[in-house]
Amino acid sequence: MGVLDGRIALVTGASRGIGTEIARRFAAEGATVIATARTLDPGSSPLAGSLTDTVASIEAAGGTAQAVAADVSRAEDRVTLVERVTAAHGPVDILVSNAAVTWFTPVAEFTAKRVDLMFEVQVKAPMHLAQLVLPGMRERGAGTILNISSRAAIHPQLPPTGRASRGGTVYGMCKAALERFSTGLAAELYADGIAVNALSPNRVVPTPGTVFHHLTTEDAPDAEAPAVMAEAALALCHPPADGGRALTGRIAYSQDLLNELGIAIPSR
């Protein structure tokens, strides 16, 4: 028996990195996981990882998962995605918006097309997907929405260091908007018993994306293991054992949250 037995979890950006780890962790706790991203099969992206790989690893461990390819930058894909999941499995119990597309470019050089795409994927898509799953959650009086954020949302100090001085402004802007959306939606849905939170890693997680952007390396001693984010996501996405109200309205950081809740921090 897992803490997510019987629940339907939709995880975006689940072809690699943090999304894959969350999908695996939720499936290990009994959820039926719908893994979605653009990359369905291995070799169709310059980055390692695919939905096929994610689902295969879940099934090999005895879990239940389905891959549904979708481009969440397209409103029509978002609608079709939720319709397919609902028709096949019933209403979504847990929505994890993790998909991201990012460029690290100074504002003076940023193109409008790239700004629009980043905002579409990292702000408008989580909002639209939440709107699509809310009717089913409200009908049952329960549900969880988790938006994956980043420490880039924190305002930089001056003089700048790290990502703040290397073109992270637009990325941070998107994540700050996502966090404000999360807390606002949590307030709107508080009376409905639906939890909404934002979760960031305490440290950079070595994923195909962060390694590609030279934010960290696979063997960086100060990096955070992907499993840490997955464990923190699980802590925010299952009902309390005592039947009380779930955590909601939190701008949480993975290791800080696990320490607060007395949950061991994974080492891998």
Please give a structural write-up.
- This protein has helices at residues 17-28, 51-60, 75-89, 112-140, 169-189, 208-212, 226-236, 254-261; strands spanning 8-12, 32-37, 64-69, 94-97, 143-148, 194-200, 251-253.
- Strands 3-2-1-4-5-6-7 form a seven-stranded parallel β-sheet, with helices on both faces.
- Helix content is 41%, strand content 14%.
- The protein is built from eight helices and seven strands.
- It is globular, with a radius of gyration of 17 Å.
- The protein is an alpha/beta fold and 268 residues long.
- The two termini are 24 Å apart.
H and E string:
EHEHEHEHEHEHHEH
Rg, alpha carbons: 17 Å
Number of helices: 8
Task: Label the structural class.
Answer: alpha/beta
**Alpha-carbon distance between the two ends:** 24 Å
Share of helical residues: 40-55%
| General form | globular
Q: What percentage of the residues does DSSP assign to strands (E)?
A: 5-15%
Extract low-pLDDT stretches.
none
Strand order of the largest sheet: 3-2-1-4-5-6-7
In total, the number of strands is 7
For the sheet with most strands, the description reads: 7 strands, parallel
Mean pLDDT: 92
